Amino acid sequence: MSAADPAGPQADRIWDLGLLFITLGSVVYAVVIGFLLYALWQGGRRVESVGGPAVEHGLTQWVAGAIVVTTVLLLGLLVANLAVGRATAEFAQPGALTIRVTGHQWWWEIEYADPEPSRRVVTANEIHIPVGRQVRVEVSSRDVIHSFWVPNLHGKLDLTPGYRASTVLRADRPGVYYGRCAEFCGLQHARMDFRVIAESPGRFAAWYEGQLRPGRAPATTLEQQGQQVFLSRGCVLCHTVRGSAAGSRVGPDLTHLASRGTIAAGILPNTRGHLAGWVLDPQSIKPGVLMPPNQLAANELRALLAYLQSLN
Ligand code: CUA
Description:
alpha+beta; Immunoglobulin-like; five-stranded mixed beta sheet; 7 helices; 39% helix; binds dinuclear copper ion
């Protein structure tokens, strides 16, 4: 994750601007230090030849010159900044993919806003996008202000409750790009991560078709028991598994949980052990998170894990 490694045109422009600022800043710094050293060196020699009005006149010219140069440089940077702002605020072309991102304390709800309602996909914390295609990202928040930031792809975009903002980004090479919340939003702000998985259009389409399917029905007795645990204990109150009786949208949609690489908003790998720890005691992993601890018997936990891991 680095803004210095742009993977798309928007991040490219922003990084060029960053380079301009760094280069000009370095040159100005070197010149100022040069003058300082020169002044120190001259000061040592001043003891013999004390300057009169002529020297002061020269000094005034230098100061005036420095002010002019500084003003021109700052105006130049301002213009460059505005130009990049305009260039990266482009509008989505027809055919762009629209993704709605809703911020929650502390996870990301992702919805693919297909014009046809039956083709909408809802997931969490992992955004798949096809390489080379414009993606319009619409953001809002359910609670407090968050900020959507994928340094390799674009600058920051604030998620404000009751307000919809949008931007357009594009990934030009495949890869997994890390994103995180860039606006302090409470206790677990530092653990509000997500991933953008940029892949070939073919792989993206395959992933999308997979996500459109309802949640897999339990195939074994253990998975069946697990679904019963899911529906009879706390899980059902907050989570959706499409195709089952679970339809709450308080927490992340778990219809295809097993297809995701991480849990707990990008901070834990999606493995059986981490899933067990998270289900039993999320508060010790992310104190303050909305998900309560769940007291499950060993056989209930085993069944629930089998069910959750079958949701691919
Ligand atoms: Cu969400 Cu910081």
